[in-house]
Design a protein that fits this description.
single chain, 142 residues, mainly alpha
Length: 142
């Protein structure tokens, strides 16, 4: 991996989180912050890893600071949904994803296949949300 490749670090932090390895996700997100301190997702991924590690207060502090530093376009409903699912807040996750998809935001098509949200697939509200926003249900195939 290229040591200064921001996207590679982001994917690595995400992969660790998806693999149930939040400590490695946290370490990678901290490396991401070092090489991309002006990239809002660096802090979102740090906050998600902290949340997964049971460090909710630290996670909230990081996100409050990030929201003050970056504008509304830098931290979208998609990123907010990632944090909500890490907290176990299904309703808030679905609300964020629906708003994101309805405004046809960049990457909204990924919602249906993003493993971040796989925990929601058995919930009937998942399929209902996908139908409302016009996304296919691949959950039975994942």
């Amino acid at each position: 991996m290229s040591p200064h490749d921001v996207y590679a670090r982001l994917l690595l932090a995400d992969t660790y989180a998806q693999s149930g390895r939040p400590q490695e996700s946290l370490e990678t997100s901290l490396q991401l912050i070092e090489i991309a301190p002006n990239y809002a997702n660096s802090y979102v991924y740090q906050a998600r890893a902290l949340q997964m590690l049971g460090r909710a207060e630290e996670s909230a502090t990081i996100m409050n600071q990030a929201r003050m530093r970056f504008d509304d376009t830098a931290i979208t409903e998609y990123e907010e949904a990632m944090l909500h699912v890490a907290r176990g807040s299904v309703e808030s996750t679905l609300e964020c994803l629906e708003r994101y998809a309805l405004r046809k935001a960049n990457g909204a098509h990924c919602i249906a296949v993003d493993p971040t949200f796989a925990v929601l697939h058995p919930d009937p509200r998942w399929l209902s949300m996908l139908e409302r926003v016009g996304l296919p249900d691949f959950s039975s195939r994942l």
